[in-house]
Specification:
- The protein is an all-alpha fold and 457 residues long.
- Among the domains are: 28-69; 167-233, no CATH class.
- It contains 18 helices and no strands.
- It has helices spanning 28-36, 41-67, 77-80, 97-102, 104-109, 117-135, 142-162, 181-206, 211-232, 249-274, 279-293, 297-311, 320-346, 349-357, 362-377, 379-392, 404-410, 422-452.
């Protein structure tokens, strides 16, 4: 604009300057790589090393499992015939997938009777149909779904897999004292209920809580156990299948799911017991945790399978799989207790003071204030324990239980599929299955962490 003589000239923008695009090095794939992979000299070196490792390992793995693999055949000749082309210098092809197909049912069901596969399939279907809606937060009816998964599903699974119709026998009083066995079972169950009520009363008094709700919950739980025991004793007309013939993925999932479901509540109780002000409860919790954490799982399995029967009364026996389940659950509960205790101790003292200022009892404070926050903090540790437990199920092979990996190893004795790639193919297939389960648990853990991380946004 024009101005008078001696005055300064100026410029007033009438329109806004159009936005210019961000530099190519700051957005898109190039920007992401610069920020995450090449942001500094150490990161650049690590990125180049990782690329080299991927280059060295991934192409041979793809060649073995896909490009040079054999996909059809009836015996070992399909994987070793030099006239089929693509032969390796050593005289064999890549992965022999027909071998996996031939033994696939054995890997999934073990030696379970083929005519009864439908029972295992129903269990698999109920597990997936109940677990998936339970894990999706947006779906409704969570309480009913949880009731199905933690109460109905275990009972139906036990009846389907074993056939039910178990004989109820007592174990506290000798058979000569009271007959018949069913009456003895009821008396023993009544004694256990009275013992549980007495322990609950002592704990409630020690935590300065009203004993009535705890006693009511104990009676309700024991009543539910009695109903479950009676249902398992009913003859539904199913063929009885011994656990000795179970195997494959069935045994792996039974041990892993039972250990996971049982270890979390037991671990929470042990963590609370270790922080209790009652000397007896605290001492018992410390001894239990340190004992089970001080011995390897392989020793626990040996003790449950070989030594435990030596300490039982004459005529009292436990199924080998049941002994393994108890040992794995107790072992995992000890580690879970320390994970949960870490989360409880991470909470500031003000949370306890605020809960007590509201007049909440000990159990109300733990249920509504402390445990929800503590468990949210230790989600990675909890899932890490679950993944470790899932992989540790392979140790049951030493006590004669053929889990998924054990069933694969047992198939190597079949000479009709014997080849240099048989074991490699079997172990590769096992690695894929274990990775699928463990990676799924890991990703769901990350999803739940982000969903519950509301206090740090």
């Amino acid at each position: 604009m024009a101005t008078s003589a001696g005055s300064k000239t100026g410029f007033v923008r009438q329109t806004m300057e159009a936005a210019r695009p961000a530099p190519i090095t700051e957005v898109g794939l190039v920007g992401w790589m610069k920020k995450n992979l090449f942001s500094s000299v150490p990161n650049t070196v690590l990125t180049l090393v990782a690329i080299y490792i991927v280059w060295v390992t991934v192409p041979p793995l793809l060649e073995f499992s896909i490009f040079n693999a054999v996909w059809s055949g009836d015996n070992r000749a399909a994987c070793t015939n030099a006239e089929q082309g693509g032969l390796q210098p050593e005289g064999w092809f890549g992965a022999c997938w027909p071998y996996v197909g031939a033994y696939f049912k054995q890997f999934i069901y073990g030696r379970y009777p083929a005519a009864e596969y439908w029972r295992v399939n129903i269990v698999y279907f109920m597990f997936v149909a109940g677990l998936v809606p339970l894990l999706i937060p947006s779906l409704p009816y969570k309480r009913e779904n949880a009731l199905f998964m933690f109460l109905i599903f275990p009972v139906v699974t036990f009846i389907l897999l074993t056939g039910g119709h178990i004989r109820l026998e007592g174990f506290l009083l000798p058979e000569a004292v009271m007959r018949p066995s069913f009456v003895k079972f009821l008396v023993d169950f009544g004694l256990l209920t009275a013992l549980a009520v007495a322990i609950g009363y002592v704990i409630a008094r020690g935590t300065e809580s009203n004993p009535a709700p705890m006693i009511r919950n104990i009676l309700f739980a024991m009543g539910g156990l009695l109903v479950i025991a009676l249902l398992c004793a009913v003859n539904f007309g199913l063929r009885h299948v011994e656990t000795d013939v179970w195997g494959g993925l069935l045994v792996t999932l039974v041990i892993a799911v039972t250990g996971i479901v049982a270890s979390l509540p037991l671990g929470i109780l042990l963590a609370l017991g270790r922080r209790s002000q009652m000397p007896v409860i605290r001492l018992f919790s410390v001894i239990f945790i340190e004992f089970w954490r001080g011995i390897p799982l392989i020793t626990v399995l040996f003790m449950s399978s070989v030594m435990l029967p030596l300490f039982l009364p004459e005529g009292v026996t436990f199924d080998k799989l049941l002994r393994a389940l108890i040992g794995v659950a107790l072992f995992s509960a000890a580690y879970m207790a320390e994970v949960v205790r870490g989360g409880i101790q991470a909470l500031p003292k003000g949370q306890y003071e605020g809960a007590m200022a509201l007049g909440l009892s000990y159990w109300q404070m733990m249920q509504m204030i402390i445990l929800p926050q503590a468990l949210k903090l230790v989600i990675p540790g909890i899932v890490n324990s679950f993944i470790a437990l899932f992989k540790d199920t392979t140790l049951v092979l030493i006590i004669g239980l053929f889990d998924f990996l054990g069933q694969i190893q047992s198939s190597y004795s079949d000479s009709s599929w014997a080849s240099p790639v048989q074991s490699l193919t079997g172990y590769f297939f096992a690695a894929l299955v274990y990775w699928l389960f463990c990676f799924s648990m890991s990703r769901y853990s990350i999803f739940m962490e982000r969903r519950l991380d509301t206090g740090h946004r």
